[in-house]
């Protein structure tokens, strides 16, 4: 287990909620920020606040340097081959929309097909529905079993000469399933199909090596990896990004503009129109430094021990059913309690200082698969401990007492 002193690095966790010590278990929604990240944001605004790339004065040069150093840190963190393959966006949602608009839409024709999975976040469903509707194309769905595992062996039978793209998540935000993306990538490339991986729930829990994975596109959100909100990453293979048209028009994505013609900038600037979230990118770089100092392997081991312990203990409670029992899971424990709505569970737990997420978690098709409207979801991070799990279990038992 990681040293419990890590918790002291996170100011938000030092407070009490409803008279109880805060137990924050809503990490799949967003993680808390370490002091180092908060100080990095403050330092930017206090000492080097300036726009980047276009200035020759000292502050602009310093801000540009810090921003671009963050890009290099991201590239190293996920082992991208080239730093210019890292595009800063607002989050995973914008990254998926960027790929849908700039890569997939231009190649999609009537009756073509895009493949996603049963367990996708709405952000990896709706953009594909939009372009399929625009292009009169078909969206096909990889099914899953009741354990919450994708039926990978069925993908080959779904693919035809009309299949143009595949997009799936690395880790399910509502079930915790770690998908066999290596196998899906091999299937896609074996059929000359490009593929995108939504890694919003993966990079903070697992070691991600894009040189090894060979994914065409990969994305994640900063706020789920202990970084600020409003910053995220799209990775794309250089040869693909260089052929893609811009997603937005404006400053910094151009080389020259006349009323007759605009010449677009090189990557990554081509996809970073306007003033970016400079402070957010710098904060992301600092968050990555923080994670690297702890070690992703150590984090994965710690969170697995917590998840295994929480799963073991909650299974002992009569009337509680876990939703999502995949063999390979990461950090998420979703459950329902007989005759108690998840929102009521969340409300009672909050009274005891325990913060969890309740609802459909932006995965309504997954909830429909299980025939439920919502779940209660506890999700773990580096600052959580067995004591937090014990408090969760105690609070769940208290909730059942209240409603019986």
| Beta-strand content | 15-25%
Helix content: 25-40%
- In angstroms, what separates the terminal alpha carbons? 36 Å
Instruction: Write down the CATH topology of the largest domain.
Output: Aspartate Aminotransferase, domain 2
Total number of helices = 13
- Structural class comes to alpha/beta
State the domain count: 2
Cα radius of gyration in angstroms: 22 Å
Largest sheet: 7 strands, mixed
> What is the name of the CATH architecture of the largest domain?
3-Layer(aba) Sandwich
Mean of the pLDDT scores? Answer: 97
The CATH class designation of the largest domain is Alpha Beta
How many strand elements?
A: 17
Q: Name the CATH homologous superfamily of the largest domain.
A: Type I PLP-dependent aspartate aminotransferase-like (Major domain)
What does the secondary structure layout of this molecule look like, with pairings?
Blueprint: E1 16-17, E2 20-21, E3 23-24, H1 35-48, H2 58-77, E4 86-89, H3 92-107, E5 113-117, H4 126-135, E6 138-142, H5 155-158, E7 163-169, H6 181-190, E8 194-198, H7 210-213, E9 217-221, E10 232-236, H8 238-241, E11 254-257, E12 262-264, H9 278-294, H10 296-314, E13 320-322, E14 332-337, H11 342-351, E15 354-355, E16 357-359, H12 364-370, E17 375-379, H13 386-402
Parallel strand pairs: 3-15, 5-6, 5-7, 7-8, 8-9
Antiparallel strand pairs: 1-2, 4-10, 9-10, 11-12, 13-14, 14-17, 16-17
Helix pairs in contact: 1-9, 2-9, 3-4, 10-13, 11-13
